[in-house]
Amino acid sequence: MKVVNFAEENSLISQYMTELRDVTIQKDMLRFRRNLERIGEIMAYEISKTLDYKLVETTTPLAVAESKVLETPLVLATIFRAGVPFHQGFLNYFDHAENAFVSAYRKYKEKENFDVCIEYLASPRLEGKTLILADPMLATGASMELSYRALLTKGMPEQIHVASVIASQQAVDYIRNHFPDDRTTVWIGAVDKEINSHSYIVPGLGDAGDLAYGTKE
Length: 217
Fold this sequence. Notes:
This protein is an alpha/beta fold. The chain has helices at 12-21, 29-48, 83-93, 142-151, 169-178, 208-213, and strands at residues 2-5, 53-59, 64-70, 74-80, 98-110, 113-122, 130-134, 137-138, 159-168, 184-192, 194-195, 201-202.
């Protein structure tokens, strides 16, 4: 399984990551959402280099030009609610893709003990298609795996791209062990070393959903 960690190379993702993490800048919800979207756009461009294209002829005002257009059928999937602006970044570039949405949340049994629950799924069929499953925070990997299992009820995708803004090393290892090794690529803005007792990524950036859309009860 290939893991692409953008923090290991120089790109604009590093600038947007810095702003997402900064406790003063991240208070601007509009800017926070836009930075998630921008990172999604850059990742979409990088993923686009791995996809299949076909040659077409296009009639211009002067002649006929040959060019390449995307041939890989795509499904963009995300997890509510923090994933929405991140997802939009991918959709800005893959504007002809189909879309899927999963509701996954932590149901706490005790203060630091929770189950991940799936309540909602809307997805097209996935057979023979490439699935891009995007969620900005990959803390334990459990939500991503359960969302993937839910999506499999719509068929097995040909290729899988897991995309996150920040992941813990534990979650990266979890994805390696629970996703098909021969068809999965993981794309991450940065990998942080640990999660705390509440399963939050450290240093991380906080609760991405709250920062994007406001606190919840």
